[in-house]
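Progress against Task 2.4 (sequence-to-structure conversion) is shown through the following example record, which the project officer requested during the mid-term review.
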Amino acid sequence: MQDTLINIHNLSKHYSIGGGQFSALKNVDLKINAGDFMGLVGPSGSGKTTLLNVIGALDSPSEGSVEVLKLKIENISAKQAAKLRKEKLGFIFQTYNLLPVYNVYENIEFPLLLLQLSSTQRKDLVMQALEWVGLLDKVKSKPAQLSGGECQRVAIARAMVKKPQVVLADEPTANLDARNSHNILQTMEKLNQLLGTTFIFATHDAKVIGYLKRKVTLIDGRVEEDITLPPRGPQC
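Structure tokens generated for the chain above:
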């Protein structure tokens, strides 16, 4: 039986707009298990990114309960939320968010500087992450010297370097062509299988959906469908 890492019950998220209120999420119930490779799927405005942000303790519920790795997001302090993100969660964004003045090694090492690790421990972890994403030969390159696909692989390595339990990926293929998108998705699929890391995507990209093991469809802030997808066929 799989462990439940994230338990969402009756979650709603409201924002004040002008003199009224906009509900980005409405009465969402969802359980996410260890090892899931799943997507929050739906059109723009469906609530995908809002839900991802609440799971990542970047935002808080207006109503309901969100338990992430045994912590209630609605009850934790800003310091506890920062500790959760620092130690247990990894983030991958569509815009890479690499630091341009740092080389590849330094960008990947950056989240480790917040942890109590020696330089030797950090180096071992960074080199392992570079091996995972196939960028050992780019260790001294700056982001400006990399292709878009290589930048996103650096972003994956940065997210994975501390071996988080959960990785949250918001439209990670949005700025990539088809070939690079498949390379990125295959890398994340491999890490899911190798390390058992739970991946949660927010996406409407058909290429991403083709790799998912589970698809949760959101429409107007509500869960409309939650299905397990058949395994992918052999790849050429």
